[in-house]
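Repro:
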Amino acid sequence: MNAENMVYGYKGQFLYINLSQETYKIIKWPENVLNKYIGGRGLGAKLYWDLVPPDTGPLDPNNVFMILTGPLSGTIAPTAGKHLIVTKSPASGAWLESYSSGRIASELKYAGYDALIITGKAKAPINLFIYDDDIEFSDAKDLWGKGAFETETIIRERFESECGSLSIGPAGENLIPFACVGSEYFRKAGRGGAGAVMGSKSLKAIAVKGSGGIKCSEMATLTQLVLDHQKRVKFRHMTPMTLSITNAAGMLPTRNFSKGQFPKATGNIDKDAVIGVKIGDRACFACFAGCSNMTRIKDGIYKDLILEGPEYETLAMLGSNLEIDYLPAIMKANYLCDDLGMDTISTGVVIGFVMECYERGILTEEDTYGLKLNFGNYPVIMELLELIAHKKEFGAFCAKGVKIMARELKKNTEEYAMHVKGLELPAYDPRAGWGSAITYSITPRGGCHRRAWPPSVELLGGLNPFKVEGKAEIVRDLMNHRSIMHSLIVCDMIGPRINLNEDSWANYVNIVVGSNYSGRDLIERSEAIETLIRRINIREGLSSKDDYLPQRILEERLPDGPPKEKIIGTDNFLKMRAEYYTCRGWDEEGIPTKETIMNYGYDNDPKIII
């Protein structure tokens, strides 16, 4: 597949912008790069390997901030209204991929680009306005300090109402390592601190509008296939349904992961509670599912606040994890995080950590500037969120993330600082399903549930959740399938729910691009992509020592639910991790072997040169 002769699906080129110099280039892809790396996650890995020097700091001007599309972006293929950000993570200092929804990937394709790559640092706050090959570096000094919601509204007024846009809030400006990047108001590329990378470049917002289109190899076939798959959509309310499942399984993080069940959640912060405040459905751009919930608080001090969400992760991490059973408070905290530009998962873990430290007496009111950080005290959380985003008073300490906070506090707080590689853990306690122990430890960006979701087989599929044997291979297979979707940049939630597998996605790509992939071809590319990202992290200085879990997860027993009295144990964990390394073709230290590297042929790939 030669980029010079690209006709269908892809555009065959990317836009490279240097903010320091306020210059740009349009660059053709080297031959066969798109064929091997597909798009999204794969293409991001190739670009990172070639363009990000290992001695680059995440917040250095020469770090690269990338927005990736996939071969289906901008088409009517199911759930193709996603985009991917790849950069060096402020949380881990290594690989970061973060996904969200919105128009920007489609508009990039319509403007003529498969990717947008940004480096450098502007001399003063700036916005990027992109209309086809017209690039404007627009003054953003009047927007600096504003929330993400107001920023997006102003950007659409100044540029184009129907554009694709990304923006950051104060948390990104203040370089907080769990700052997110917003789009479509409530959609967030949340994990790992991509918002801080934008802030480090003095880049407040990006807006893109394209006037072109995308050619599909078999448009009539594509249309019919989409109509057929649309008929399979029968679900609503989506992620809030998960809370009742994890609560029953003893997997729901409660009181900073010291418990796995929160009885007060039932009827108060679960699916039924969310349905009680729901006012409508919302779909991602160009998606037929409409699975997101629009909600409004009916009464109380937060009355009439309107929100998209809250999703399961937020209900758990800003709810049960903090022992809060008042849904309006969770919704208000969700709203503030979205506007301030902070990941709700990491924020919930940070607050849970300081609440535990406060109740243990490790932190006092003198340390917290008078904040009474007891579990369940939701009014104080609203105040703390603002302090964190602006790095003021006790918020400046919380803005460091739990890895650094525990390192500074000492007093054995590392044992219950819930992170892997500096990325705070999401809302599935691995002690109730040991597959997540492997997923959290080996996922390249750190503690993450999106690259593989073992609860799908351990809670919903009947697999013994406390079994060690075979878990590594199961996680590998789940990751391979997810990696396909994350390279095509399609939704990893809706696709499985309408029974789209790797063969289905291969068919979609072939119909759009005119290729002849099989599902097995895409799996093989996923394997190569995962090993390349592993090589990136090793080059960044990470090792098997970073593929580890908090002591609480490995050695503490949960006091409630099905996992009561169960313990993962270090030996069991290391056995599963070793098996994962082996099935990836990596050695006992997690380093890809020479044979594996030769098998994937990286050295034969043309280097991407700017």
